[in-house]
Write a structure and sequence with these properties.
This protein has 465 residues and is mostly helical. The chain is 70% helix and 0% strand. Helix 2 crosses helix 4 and helix 5 packs across helix 7.
Length: 465
Amino acid sequence: MSHPPQQPHGQYMPNGRPRPGAPTHVPDAPAFQSQPRFRDYGNPRAYDTSVRPTSGLTAARFGPAQIQRPDQAQPQSAWATQTRRVQQVEQEATKAPTTSILVWIALVMLGFALLLVLGYFFLDFVVTASSSPIWWPVAAFLALMSLIVISLVMLLADRWDPQPIPLLIIAIFWGAAVSAFGSYWINTFNSLIVYAITGSEPITNFFGPVISAPLVEESTKGLGLLLLLILARRYFNGPLDGLIYGALIGGGFAFTENIIYYTRGFEGAGVGGLVFLVMLRGVGNIFGHAIYTSATGIIMGYVARKWGTIPTFIAFIPALIPGMLMHAAWNLSATILPGGLVSLLLMYGTKAVIALVWLIVIGLLVWDESRLTRVRLGDYANQGWLTHEEVNMLATWSGRREGRRWAAQIGAKPIMKRFIRESADLASIRQRLLADGANPKVVETERQLLGRLTSNRQQLLAHAR
């Protein structure tokens, strides 16, 4: 197979391309490393600004983050010498990345808050309802089914570069506890104020769902995204990450809200009313809140990837607007459309189309995430940390599948899975360094991951021998 001509290497430009006339020789390096074969994996400018501004809101706090050459010669790739014709083997569970103590503290506190919130609404149902308390757990179970569906969809979307499980749980707990309970009381207070001012029940009934609910609920849910950005910026590194966290926050919010609506529906119309609301909210509009908040997450994640952390905080308020508008439009349609089957078909048919578009967007973002991984790992391959064959193995679905099969053949599947996971993490860290500049803490994380990359390569080579 022919290869593109080699280009000078050594001093690289900010966009990852080698500077003409740069030195090419690294003493005692193997052939592939003494003159790394430069390969263009796409347009890096699609994922970062090659030259960061020195002033203004998007200015980097730190200088450019350059990739350093390996201190020692890297061994030739074990992967490149092996066959891809191997047997399909059973997948093993992937170990979640470690997280900080602050994440665990937040997880425990939010879990406790969720128990308090659910206890509050249970007691409220027991005190006010004339029926048996057993119907509250039934409503909670039905609401949980919708949350499980949303969570499974997000786990599928998160397969490329999995987020730490504690962070995913924090997102759900924030939506179900803090956002739902806070929104419940703020919306109630706002409606009381409007009624006290206007004395009009129709105006209050319009203001609550169409104005107050979108503004309050999307804001409280969005604050959960800011919390995750503060707790774990390392894992909030792109629009797919933002979508996943946002959808889980929205799913958690819908879980608690559905319990409230289901119990009220049962009180008002019995089992028939409960079933009717489950079909409308738990099936027809199952992704409603997930879609609204994921729109905020996509925007925040894109800004974090492209321009860094500080601009992401600045973009928080504008990022809320799309979700607020979609939320308000849905509630408005429910308010102004006449009742009947035609109105229901129009509303939920439109929501089904929106949900389909949302699922397509998820697929596109997963593809974009894999492409970004390939581009960023290509930067390391062009510096000699990896071979280009390894980039193809680590940054494509087919390459990962074949890599795991081969590793299973030589008894190194856990090493390969760790190699794949940590390489994706390394690509995300490189992208953050390009967005935020050479933050010393992030540079140290990159150094540690490069050490892990070298160790993984050496272990694979040892097993192959």
